[in-house]
Each structure stands twice: as C-alpha cells, then as structure tokens.
Write a structure and sequence with these properties.
about 300 residues, about 20% strand, Spore Coat Polysaccharide Biosynthesis Protein SpsA, Chain A, 12 helices, about 40% helix, 7-stranded mixed sheet, alpha/beta
Length: about 300
Amino acid sequence: MQPFFSVIIPTYNRANLIGKAIESVFVQTFAQWELVIVDDGSTDNTKEVVQAYNDKRINYVFQKNAERSAARNNGIENATGKYICFLDSDDYYLPERLELLHKEVANKNFPVAVFYTGLLLDKDGELQSREEKIQEGSTFEHLTLSVIHSQQTCIHYEILKQFKYDLRFRVGEDMELWLRIATKFPFLFLAHQATIVVVIHDDRSINVKRYNASADYVRMLGHIFLPSHSGNKISSKRKRQMLSAGYFGMAKHFIYNKSKRKAVKNLCLAILNDPINMQTKYRLNIIRHLLLGSGKAVLLLEE
C-alpha cells in the first residue's frame, strides 16, 4: 500500500541525536507513513544507528557529502508518499503530528498545496511556542516575513516533482523554494498545530559564532531579487529590511570573531539599508563601542 506520508530526514554525523527523531515518527498515532533517511556522507556511526531499527518502513539512503538541499532532493526522489514532510535529525515530532495533518488535508479534499504549521522550541527540555502568524500583504511578502522551515511543511508530491531545493544555497534555501512554488500553488497555514519540536543546542548546523550564515543569506537574497525570480515581487521596503537583517547578522559574526573593521562595515550597511528600523539606535550604540574598543559590543549582542 502506498504510504500517505513520506517523512524525509536529512542527516550528517548525528548518530547521537537521530534516534529521538526516528522514534518520534514510530510513535505517530497515524500509521500510514514511510521514513526516508538520507545520510549526507556521515563519518560517524549514523548508518549503524539507523539500521539497528530493522524496520521495513525505513529507507536508508547514503550519499557523498553534498549539504542538506541535495539530501532533501535525494529524499524527495526516493519518496513514494502522497504528501511529503520533513524532519531534521536533531528535532522531533509530537505523537499526533501526522494524524492532525491528515485530518486537515482530508477536510480540504486533498489539495495539491503546501500545508505548514507552527512549531515549538525545546530549550533545555522546556517547550516554548513559536506559533506562526499570517502576515498581511501578498503571498510572496508573507513568505519572507514568516520564517517557515522545511520541517513545518507538508507538501503534495506533485509540487515537489516540479520544484526542488536549489543546491547553490545552504541558508534561506527553503524560502527561495517557497517563493518559486508560490507562483503556481497555494500555501495553507494550519493554526494551532505546533507539533514539530526544534531543539536548540550549540551544535546546530547554523551557529552565528562558528559560521557566517548571514553571508550566504545575503547571497541568496541577491538571487531572489533578480527580475527573473518570483522573489522580485517582494516590495522594495521589504527587500531593504531583509538586506538590513542579513548585514546585521554578518556584523554579529564578525564581532564574535573579533574582526572590528568588517563588523563596523556591515553594521553601517545594515543601517543604510533600513535607517528607520527600530534597532537603529541599538546598532549605532554597538558601532560606538566597537570604535571605542570598550569590549561591550559582545555584551550588547547577548542582552
């Protein structure tokens, strides 16, 4: 029987974490699923951890390291379900996630659409809600104002036959994909369904101190703002806000890594792109402390 859901887990060197993600799928109250685990070239014992489950519903796929967009695309190619869901290997589902998704999809007569939910944050075992809010304006504007992670989505397989993750991007790759999908298919928000839990820990793949993710984000913005991309439908005001946030993120990375000149440059770019931002005074204060060499800039970031 064809599974209703394909749950795709991309993973890389998460042998110590992936078990909880797998088990959260096993305990789902809706049973018509398959689990596609794409190992993106792990060098630890991820394969042994996965294969220890010895369950026919798990399809383990190994690939040479090519980053998570390639891993998700590989998972899509190996999926057989009617709707495709995602789960990161360091996160987990609540037991009723798939059942609630199925009820909503059925109530709407199984449309070819992207469904998405809110999420919960797990900080040291304490769950905090980060429920999505519908933003005013166009769909394209909304997709940039609301941070919709791949884990939050449930997507009809016909959509992902036509649209895949762009391998050039490792930050903002999901937003870039959503903007392209939105030219042809609807996005449907399922309120009060925060049933995906994102675990906050220092070893997440995007860590501002260790990795300048915002540089990749700004590069992605340059792509979606091209006239040929559907992201160009975003308003000029919103584009400036996004660039400002990207430059501020780069500045934070350089502050943590004691590169004062680059930090000041990117703080200035953040302010110039969005001078009426409510954080402008705060950002100017950080510049002041950087130039004074007071050492307080890092403390301001962590307030």
